[in-house]
Amino acid sequence: MERLKALRKSRSDRVEFIADMISLLLADKELYSDEVLFRDAVEEIYSTLRSEVTEKGRRDLVEAYELAVLLKAVVSGRVKGAEELLVEIRKNLPG
Predict the structure, then answer these.
(1) Residue 55, φ and ψ in degrees, nearest 5
(2) d(CA 1, CA 68)
């Protein structure tokens, strides 16, 4: 959790923070396997992308947001393949 908090402090742009957080989750299987941390990270990814798309009109992030919706469903147990969805979300973020 401390690594994610440090990322948050080092990035003022919320989308860059999400991109960095996803990269960290994909690179560090220990973080990825921590269920509570992973659920919190998924909620942060989902809520940030939702806000960017719905409130700020960021059409360039629609596909990433749609994948975040699926990722949230995976984490809740309704869909399988969270890691694959994280890779797809990361691919659709700028940078």
Answers:
(1) -95, -35
(2) 20
Task: Evaluate whether 42 touches 19 at the Cβ level (below 8 Å).
Answer: no
| Nearest by Cα to 37 from 5, 14, 10 | 5
Q: Which residues contact 62 (CB under 8 A, 6 or more apart)?
A: 53
Residue ranges of the alpha helices (H) in 1-95? 2-10, 14-27, 29-33, 35-54, 62-75, 82-91
**One digit per residue, pLDDT tens: the chain, 95 residues?**
565 666 666 667 889 989 988 988 888 777 777 888 888 889 999 999 999 999 999 999 999 999 999 899 888 877 777 888 888 888 889 87
Query: What count of other Cβ atoms lies within 10 Å of the Cβ of residue 50?
Result: 15
Both tokens of residue 5?
A: 């908090």
